[in-house]
Amino acid sequence: MPSTPSPNVYPIRLYGDPILRKKARAIEDLQAPLTIPGFAPAALAQVARTMLETMYDAHGVGLAAPQVGLGVRMFVAAEYADDEDEGQETPLRSRVLREFVAINPVLEVLNKKKDSHYQEGCLSIPGIYEEGVKRDRAVRMTYLNLDGQRKVVEAEDYLARVFQHEVDHLDGRFFLDRLPAEVTDDHRKDLAAMQRKAKAFLKLLDERRSLEGA
Protein backbone atom coordinates (compact mmCIF):
# COMPACT_ATOMS: atom_id res chain seq x y z
CA MET A 1 0.00 0.00 0.00
CA PRO A 2 1.41 3.47 -0.89
CA SER A 3 2.57 5.63 2.01
CA THR A 4 4.57 8.46 0.43
CA PRO A 5 3.61 12.10 1.11
CA SER A 6 2.63 12.62 -2.55
CA PRO A 7 0.92 9.43 -3.69
CA ASN A 8 -0.43 9.08 -7.21
CA VAL A 9 -3.73 7.65 -5.99
CA TYR A 10 -5.42 6.63 -2.76
CA PRO A 11 -6.90 3.19 -2.05
CA ILE A 12 -10.68 3.40 -2.35
CA ARG A 13 -12.57 2.10 0.66
CA LEU A 14 -15.01 -0.70 -0.09
CA TYR A 15 -18.52 -1.52 1.06
CA GLY A 16 -18.29 -2.77 4.61
CA ASP A 17 -15.73 -0.20 5.76
CA PRO A 18 -17.25 1.57 8.82
CA ILE A 19 -16.17 5.05 7.68
CA LEU A 20 -18.57 4.80 4.76
CA ARG A 21 -21.48 4.65 7.19
CA LYS A 22 -20.47 7.62 9.34
CA LYS A 23 -21.64 11.17 8.84
CA ALA A 24 -18.64 13.26 7.83
CA ARG A 25 -17.68 16.36 9.79
CA ALA A 26 -17.48 19.85 8.34
CA ILE A 27 -14.08 21.28 7.45
CA GLU A 28 -13.56 24.33 9.66
CA ASP A 29 -9.93 25.21 8.88
CA LEU A 30 -8.97 25.03 5.22
CA GLN A 31 -5.32 25.62 6.09
CA ALA A 32 -5.03 22.65 8.45
CA PRO A 33 -3.32 19.55 7.00
CA LEU A 34 -5.39 16.42 6.54
CA THR A 35 -4.27 12.90 7.35
CA ILE A 36 -5.53 9.92 5.41
CA PRO A 37 -4.69 6.67 7.23
CA GLY A 38 -1.52 5.21 5.78
CA PHE A 39 -0.29 8.51 4.35
CA ALA A 40 1.64 11.49 5.62
CA PRO A 41 -0.32 14.67 6.49
CA ALA A 42 -0.96 16.82 3.42
CA ALA A 43 -2.47 20.17 2.55
CA LEU A 44 -6.13 20.24 1.59
CA ALA A 45 -5.30 21.17 -2.01
CA GLN A 46 -2.90 18.24 -2.34
CA VAL A 47 -5.46 15.82 -0.93
CA ALA A 48 -8.09 17.14 -3.34
CA ARG A 49 -5.73 16.78 -6.32
CA THR A 50 -4.88 13.22 -5.37
CA MET A 51 -8.57 12.45 -4.92
CA LEU A 52 -9.17 13.68 -8.47
CA GLU A 53 -6.31 11.51 -9.74
CA THR A 54 -7.82 8.56 -7.85
CA MET A 55 -11.21 9.25 -9.41
CA TYR A 56 -9.77 9.40 -12.92
CA ASP A 57 -7.71 6.25 -12.33
CA ALA A 58 -10.89 4.42 -11.32
CA HIS A 59 -12.86 5.87 -14.27
CA GLY A 60 -15.29 7.62 -11.95
CA VAL A 61 -17.33 10.81 -12.08
CA GLY A 62 -17.12 11.63 -8.38
CA LEU A 63 -15.32 10.64 -5.20
CA ALA A 64 -16.16 11.62 -1.63
CA ALA A 65 -13.57 12.03 1.12
CA PRO A 66 -14.91 9.10 3.21
CA GLN A 67 -14.23 6.84 0.23
CA VAL A 68 -10.51 7.36 0.79
CA GLY A 69 -10.75 7.09 4.56
CA LEU A 70 -11.17 10.77 5.39
CA GLY A 71 -14.28 11.63 7.38
CA VAL A 72 -14.73 15.24 6.24
CA ARG A 73 -17.38 16.93 4.13
CA MET A 74 -15.62 17.22 0.81
CA PHE A 75 -15.95 15.57 -2.55
CA VAL A 76 -14.43 15.89 -5.99
CA ALA A 77 -16.23 15.41 -9.28
CA ALA A 78 -15.87 16.02 -12.98
CA GLU A 79 -18.31 16.91 -15.71
CA TYR A 80 -17.45 15.10 -18.92
CA ALA A 81 -18.32 15.77 -22.54
CA ASP A 82 -20.18 13.00 -24.32
CA ASP A 83 -18.18 10.81 -26.70
CA GLU A 84 -18.17 12.41 -30.14
CA ASP A 85 -18.48 9.18 -32.12
CA GLU A 86 -20.27 6.06 -31.05
CA GLY A 87 -17.82 3.26 -30.44
CA GLN A 88 -14.83 5.60 -30.33
CA GLU A 89 -12.99 5.50 -27.02
CA THR A 90 -11.41 8.81 -26.08
CA PRO A 91 -9.11 9.33 -23.08
CA LEU A 92 -11.12 10.23 -20.00
CA ARG A 93 -9.14 13.37 -19.23
CA SER A 94 -9.66 14.72 -22.73
CA ARG A 95 -13.40 14.73 -22.08
CA VAL A 96 -13.30 16.80 -18.87
CA LEU A 97 -15.32 20.01 -19.11
CA ARG A 98 -15.16 21.04 -15.46
CA GLU A 99 -13.63 19.77 -12.25
CA PHE A 100 -15.22 20.35 -8.88
CA VAL A 101 -13.70 20.36 -5.41
CA ALA A 102 -16.69 20.89 -3.13
CA ILE A 103 -15.97 21.66 0.52
CA ASN A 104 -18.87 21.59 2.98
CA PRO A 105 -21.44 21.30 0.16
CA VAL A 106 -25.11 22.06 0.75
CA LEU A 107 -27.77 21.07 -1.77
CA GLU A 108 -31.02 22.86 -2.50
CA VAL A 109 -33.65 21.18 -4.66
CA LEU A 110 -34.65 23.20 -7.72
CA ASN A 111 -36.85 20.60 -9.37
CA LYS A 112 -38.61 18.13 -7.10
CA LYS A 113 -39.62 15.93 -10.01
CA LYS A 114 -37.79 12.65 -9.54
CA ASP A 115 -35.70 11.00 -12.22
CA SER A 116 -34.91 7.29 -12.03
CA HIS A 117 -33.88 6.24 -15.53
CA TYR A 118 -30.10 6.66 -15.17
CA GLN A 119 -27.97 3.68 -14.26
CA GLU A 120 -26.02 4.35 -11.08
CA GLY A 121 -22.85 2.77 -9.70
CA CYS A 122 -20.28 3.51 -7.03
CA LEU A 123 -16.49 3.25 -6.78
CA SER A 124 -16.91 1.74 -3.31
CA ILE A 125 -19.22 -0.95 -4.72
CA PRO A 126 -17.31 -1.87 -7.90
CA GLY A 127 -19.06 -3.90 -10.54
CA ILE A 128 -22.60 -3.27 -9.29
CA TYR A 129 -24.87 -1.00 -11.33
CA GLU A 130 -28.59 -0.43 -10.94
CA GLU A 131 -31.33 1.71 -12.44
CA GLY A 132 -34.27 3.04 -10.49
CA VAL A 133 -32.49 5.29 -7.98
CA LYS A 134 -34.79 8.28 -7.62
CA ARG A 135 -32.97 11.61 -7.63
CA ASP A 136 -34.12 15.22 -7.86
CA ARG A 137 -33.79 16.41 -11.45
CA ALA A 138 -32.19 19.77 -10.63
CA VAL A 139 -30.26 21.05 -7.61
CA ARG A 140 -28.30 24.10 -6.53
CA MET A 141 -25.07 23.39 -4.68
CA THR A 142 -23.42 25.93 -2.40
CA TYR A 143 -19.89 25.10 -1.33
CA LEU A 144 -16.42 26.45 -0.59
CA ASN A 145 -13.61 26.07 -3.08
CA LEU A 146 -9.96 25.49 -2.13
CA ASP A 147 -9.46 29.24 -1.69
CA GLY A 148 -12.30 29.42 0.81
CA GLN A 149 -14.54 31.27 -1.62
CA ARG A 150 -18.26 30.60 -1.53
CA LYS A 151 -19.43 29.14 -4.82
CA VAL A 152 -22.86 28.32 -6.19
CA VAL A 153 -23.53 25.99 -9.10
CA GLU A 154 -26.78 24.71 -10.54
CA ALA A 155 -26.97 21.27 -12.08
CA GLU A 156 -29.56 19.24 -13.91
CA ASP A 157 -30.05 15.60 -14.79
CA TYR A 158 -26.85 13.54 -14.66
CA LEU A 159 -24.61 16.15 -12.98
CA ALA A 160 -27.34 16.78 -10.41
CA ARG A 161 -27.36 13.03 -9.77
CA VAL A 162 -23.58 13.01 -9.28
CA PHE A 163 -23.79 15.80 -6.69
CA GLN A 164 -26.59 14.01 -4.82
CA HIS A 165 -24.72 10.71 -4.89
CA GLU A 166 -21.58 12.29 -3.40
CA VAL A 167 -23.46 14.21 -0.70
CA ASP A 168 -25.12 10.90 0.21
CA HIS A 169 -21.62 9.55 0.87
CA LEU A 170 -20.95 12.44 3.25
CA ASP A 171 -24.06 11.36 5.18
CA GLY A 172 -23.04 7.69 5.28
CA ARG A 173 -25.45 6.54 2.60
CA PHE A 174 -25.03 4.30 -0.47
CA PHE A 175 -27.13 4.42 -3.62
CA LEU A 176 -28.30 0.88 -2.82
CA ASP A 177 -30.01 2.29 0.27
CA ARG A 178 -32.37 4.15 -2.03
CA LEU A 179 -33.53 0.94 -3.71
CA PRO A 180 -35.75 -1.87 -2.40
CA ALA A 181 -34.00 -4.21 0.04
CA GLU A 182 -34.24 -7.12 -2.38
CA VAL A 183 -31.81 -5.33 -4.72
CA THR A 184 -29.13 -5.47 -2.03
CA ASP A 185 -30.07 -9.10 -1.37
CA ASP A 186 -29.50 -9.88 -5.05
CA HIS A 187 -25.90 -8.71 -4.65
CA ARG A 188 -25.30 -10.24 -1.23
CA LYS A 189 -22.51 -12.57 -2.38
CA ASP A 190 -20.52 -9.79 -4.07
CA LEU A 191 -21.12 -7.41 -1.17
CA ALA A 192 -19.93 -10.03 1.32
CA ALA A 193 -16.71 -10.39 -0.68
CA MET A 194 -16.23 -6.61 -0.53
CA GLN A 195 -16.80 -6.64 3.22
CA ARG A 196 -14.06 -9.24 3.61
CA LYS A 197 -11.68 -7.12 1.54
CA ALA A 198 -12.57 -4.04 3.57
CA LYS A 199 -11.89 -5.89 6.82
CA ALA A 200 -8.55 -7.18 5.52
CA PHE A 201 -7.52 -3.67 4.47
CA LEU A 202 -8.34 -2.23 7.89
CA LYS A 203 -6.36 -5.03 9.53
CA LEU A 204 -3.39 -4.16 7.33
CA LEU A 205 -3.65 -0.50 8.36
CA ASP A 206 -3.71 -1.50 12.03
CA GLU A 207 -0.65 -3.71 11.59
CA ARG A 208 1.24 -0.90 9.87
CA ARG A 209 0.33 1.56 12.61
CA SER A 210 1.55 -0.93 15.22
CA LEU A 211 4.88 -1.38 13.42
CA GLU A 212 5.34 2.37 13.04
CA GLY A 213 4.61 2.89 16.72
CA ALA A 214 6.96 0.13 17.85
Task: Explain what you see.
Removes the formyl group from the N-terminal Met of newly synthesized proteins. Requires at least a dipeptide for an efficient rate of reaction. N-terminal L-methionine is a prerequisite for activity but the enzyme has broad specificity at other positions. One of its GO terms (biological process) is translation. Its EC number is 3.5.1.88. This is Peptide deformylase. With about 210 residues, the protein is of the alpha+beta class. The chain has helices at about 45-55, 155-170, 180-185, 190-214, and strands spanning about 60-65, 75-80, 95-115, 135-145, 150-155. It has one domain (about 20-85, about 95-214): Peptide deformylase (Peptide Deformylase, Alpha-Beta Complex). Helix content is about 30%, strand content about 20%. Strands 1-2-3-4-5 form a five-stranded antiparallel beta sheet. The radius of gyration is 17 Å and the shape is globular. Mean pLDDT is about 90; it is low at about 1-5.
Strand order of the largest sheet: 1-2-3-4-5
The stretches of 5 or more residues where confidence is low (pLDDT under 50) are: 1-6
* Average residue-wise pLDDT: 91
Shape: globular
**CATH classification class:** Alpha Beta
CATH architecture: Alpha-Beta Complex
In N-to-C order, the SSE pattern is: HEEEEEHHH
Radius of gyration: 17 Å
Number of strands: 5
Q: By helix and strand content, what is the structural category? A: alpha+beta
* CATH topology call: Peptide Deformylase
Q: What's the helical proportion of residues?
A: 25-40%
**What does the largest sheet look like?**
5 strands, antiparallel
Terminal CA distance reads 19 Å
The CATH homologous superfamily is called Peptide deformylase
EC number: 3.5.1.88
Cofactor: Fe(2+)
Catalytic activity: N-terminal N-formyl-L-methionyl-[peptide] + H2O = N-terminal L-methionyl-[peptide] + formate
GO molecular function, one term: metal ion binding
